[in-house]
Structures are given as C-alpha cells and as structure tokens.
Amino acid sequence: MRILITNDDGVNAEGLGVLEKIARAISDDVWVIAPESDQSGVGHSLSLSDPLRLRQIDGKRYAVRGTPTDCVLMGVRQVMKDCRPDLVLSGVNKGHNVAEDVIYSGTIAAAMEGAMLGIQSIALSQSFPPGLREAAPWDCAATHGEAVVRKVLELGMDPDTLVNLNFPPCPAGEVEGIAVTAQGRRDPGMLDIEERADGRLIPYYWLTFRRTPSTPRNGTDLKALFERKISVTPLRINMTDEPLMTRYARGFA
User: Fold this and answer.
1) pLDDT digits (tens, 9 = 90+) for 63-89
2) Where does the Survival protein SurE-like phosphatase/nucleotidase domain lie (predicted)?
3) Which residues pair with 164 in a beta bridge?
C-alpha cells in the first residue's frame, strides 16, 4: 500500500512524526507532503492567488508552501502522479477535531481532498486536557492508531466518504474503548472576537475560543472523548440535506 501523509500543523510538527510511525507500521511505501508552516483553521482553502513552492527535504519527504489541501493536490497530481497513493492519512493533529471543528479543520480538509480524488482517506487528531496544549498525550494515538486505521481499512469506505478519528486526552493505557459516532454540536457562541491595542494604541482584533460548559449528547464524537473513548466518525463529501431538498421540490413544483 502506498500512503501519502500530511497535516495542518506543519512539516516539523510532533504529530506528523507520530503519524509517520503509524503509517510505516502499515506500509514501507510512505510519502510525506506537508505544509511548510502551521495551517491550522484554514479549512478546505486553496492557494489560488499565490504560487505553490515545493521543497524536497529528502527522499519521499516534501514541504509545500501552501495549505493542507494544496499538499494533497501537489502529492497526487505532481509528486506522485506516476505512483498514485492508495491511502491518505492526515494528522496527527494537536487537538481534537470534533463537532463544528470539522468545518474549520485543515486536517479534515486534507482527508476530504483525498476522498474527492477517489483515494481512501482518514483524518487523525489527538485531544489534550483543557489548558494543557503542551501536554498532549501522543502515546495515545501512537499506541492505538495503527490498529484503528487497519480496522477502518478492513471494514472499507464508501466512495465520497472519509473517516475522522479522534483520540481521547488520556494516556494510552486509560482508553476505555472505541465508539463509532456521529458528528456532535457544541453550544452556539464558541468563537468570539477580542479587541486589543498595539504599542501605538491602534486597535486590532483576535479570534478567540470561548468554551462554555455543556453536556455532550450520547452517540457523538464529543461524548466519546468525554468518556475516554476513541471516536470513529464517518463523514460524507455530499452535504445535501435530502429531506429538505424533497420538501423544497414539492413546494416549488
């Protein structure tokens, strides 16, 4: 199996090293094509107004001055055009990608781009305890990642789908199992804008996250992480709301 791995935290991110070990446990044909710098929160953006700069670090390892989506496109359409990958793995992201994170996440976007190109694609993220970003328990994803990825591949993926894996914020030995989940939803108002001033008292603005306490719903990715379980969430590229489409079709007839 030929595997392309990427991320949104950048080519030097610790999580990418964790993912490379997971990938190499599955195959000896692993290609790394990741952003030069942190691209967290860029979603499924493309670099349409700037050139893409590709830097070969060594062998099958490359850095792209662009977004995670750019990286997958560069990998499949340019670097690996004569040796198309069989699997795209994106991550391991530093921090979970659950609920509405899926909309903003560059990690998810890279896997989605792989799926759009007809390649089996999986996103992996490692949660960390609140306020302890630098204490992410990487051993959790490192220990359990290979087995979960292998199981997903064994079960298979439908066309135009991807799988979102999230590892709980605890050591590997404290994981309480695996849960197949739906995408959750937090309380509204998570994102806020904070006004600040620079040294010349000129105002500028910073996006901030305001995490409000809430009880996650059963069966969701949020609930799984709360219960120290690995969350496995299948996602679809086609976002059409079919019941509402049917209602509109009747109404406009």
Assistant:
1) 999 999 999 999 999 999 999 999 999
2) 3-187
3) 123, 233
pLDDT above 90: percentage of residues in the chain: 90
Task: Establish whether 93 is an annotated binding residue.
Answer: yes
Residue 39 CA to residue 6 CA, distance in Å, equals 11
Render the chain in DSSP notation, one character per residue.
-EEEEE-SS-TT-HHHHHHHHHHHHH-SEEEEEEESS--TT-TT---SSSPPEEEEEETTEEEEES-HHHHHHHIIIIITTTS--SEEEEEEEES---TTHHHH-HHHHHHHHHHHTT-EEEEEEE---TT-GGG--HHHHHHHHHHHHHHHHHH---TTEEEEEEE-SS-GGG---EEE-B---PPS--EEEEEEE-TT--EEEEEEE------PPTTBHHHHHHTT-EEEEEEES----HHHHHHHHHHH-
Residue 28, annotated ligand binder?
no
What CA–CA distance (Å, rounded) separates 195 from 170? 34
pLDDT in tens, 156-199: 999 999 999 999 999 999 999 999 999 999 876 677 899 999 99
**CA 143 to CA 126: how far, in whole Å?**
12
**Among all chains, which residue has been given the structure tokens 């305890």?**
129
Q: Consult the annotation and say whether 50 binds a ligand.
A: no
Beta strands in 115-217 (DSSP E): 120-126, 161-167, 178-180, 191-197, 203-209
